[in-house]
Input
Amino acid sequence: MAAVAAEERDLRPWILLSPALTTITLLLAIPTCFVVVYSFWLRTAAGGEQVGFYLDNWIEVLTDQFYRDILFQTFRIAAITTVLCALMGYLPAYFIAFSKMRNKAFLLLLLMLPFWVSYIIRTMSWINILGVSGAVNYVLTSLGIVSEPIQMLYNETTVVLGLIHFLLPFMVLNIYVSLEGIDPNLVDAARSLGSTPFQAFREVTLPLSLPGLAAGGLLCFVLGGGTYITPLILGGPTDAMFANLIYEAIIIQLNWPLGSALSIVLLVVLGAVVLLYNRFLGLGQIRKGFG
Amino acid sequence: MAQQANAVELHNTVKRFGEFTAVHSMSLNVTDGSFVTFVGPSGCGKTTTLRMIAGLENATAGDILIRGQRVNDIPIHKRNLGLVFQNYALFPHKTIFENVAFGLKYRNVDKQTIARRVREALQLVQLPHVEDRLPRQLSGGQQQRIALARAIVIQPDVLLLDEPLSALDANLREEMRVELKRIQRELGIATIFVTHDQAEALAMSDRVVVMSNGFIEQEGTPEEVYNEPASEFVANFLGISNLMSGSVEDASADTVKIAVEGGPHLLAHPREGRGKHKGDRARLAVRAEKVFLAEQHAADDDSVIIDGTIDAVDYQGQAARYFVTAGNLSWQAVNPIDRHPFHEGQAVKLRIRAQDVVLLDPARSGNGAEQAG
Output
């Protein structure tokens, strides 16, 4: 039976998928192959590229402690951001999901509102808030609490702050979706069996919303781990993340072969995180999160 | 036996949602060990009432008593109730054992006792070997049994069932009906059952509370509400009734005679004529299965025989539902089939016995009548 079915395989799904597959192939798969090829080229002292098969970039990237340190720093910042997003995102998600307000859709719209403003502008806005001549320092100096403006920007804390600002909506949306899918009767049932509101939350609501937390966590981690704009705008000289190295190599030094090798490292590392996640938690929840 | 205590009492309980009154001043007693059914169309207030007893809704006014104690201000988790939902509401991430044991965790019961009581509860619902499975691995009927086990294992004061059979298919529903009743009898636990299904209400209950638009239309044993509907709504909601208007011609001690508008004179049982006088307006109901059709009826003093013609036949196997025209009136008659049903266009005689003619309380007859069907 199965063999017959396989022989008479229906081609219609593939035909329907073909536009998407073509787009992904042309815009993602082929360029990635180019990047792989690039990474084996060499940048000459004159500034041009020498075509060939050189392992120099790879030896540099894989052996230099500097790159490993930055990669570790990237993971740390992304992880801290993810945990803080989860802690800060749960409450608003819970509120929206279980709000009896009729304008739930409006609350969700508010959540999406930041996406209407460019991510760069949103990040830059922190300079006007926390900068030396920013709002906070203005208030503090006007009130005489401090005599000199404090330098609050350009450290790891502000990088995390900027990343939270960027990533929190993704976390909230994912948690919201999983909370929204929980049958309210389950909480009522738990309550009727003798659990307090908090016990019912711990026994029923929280475990059932874990897939959403996990999905939101993965998104925050991957997006956070791959960003370079936030550290560029809000970080100090030592707060670079891995994507900043790629930016440096390609945009500043015009060293495309090295930048390519670095890109592939980041792609493989973050890809491995996704695969590990999928192995242990499943990605079905993330698909739901986008739906 | 000890004096019949009340498991649940409602005293003038009211529930309003904003401007809308879902339950109007409702008073009711549920005696210990009895099976009481709230039945009515959707939106009649039956589920809201159940949720107020459960503590899932706060009563706007009036008192709710469980075992003589006022519980209005007692939160749900301290009320010791067993609650079963239409959609089972089993915890999907917990095994069957963990589901059933859930309520015992909060009752200071040691581990061995929990295991024993869970086993007993699963035996009672006839699903002894599923402890390690997850709810989604069970069928709907099995899940509802587990939900029942989870509700009764805590030995609740009252069992509250919110349309527990509605999600099951027809055969399973009837099986579960018998099963549920057996378990309830075995445990002797006061039970409030909410349904919109009149057959369930009549089959399972010790007492039926028929509700409509937030009011109790009638409360009584299944036989009382079925045979002596207090209102037009009840007459129509439970089974099929022929409803007519008329005026009282004669209301003496041994006979009541009513002139039906556009139709014949009908005799009614003397008990129906109490407090009635000649000339009074009357609404009357005759159950469809009490309209006996035949080609010929022998005349007797307690019956009225009318000529009619069969308009349509709704064949149901063991019985048939006939639509009959007699004079200006249309009748419905449900009769068992003796070999062949009557056919369309056939002339028949309708026999209406005095004992089957019910005079409805005119004060209540308007209420909810638009929902009849």
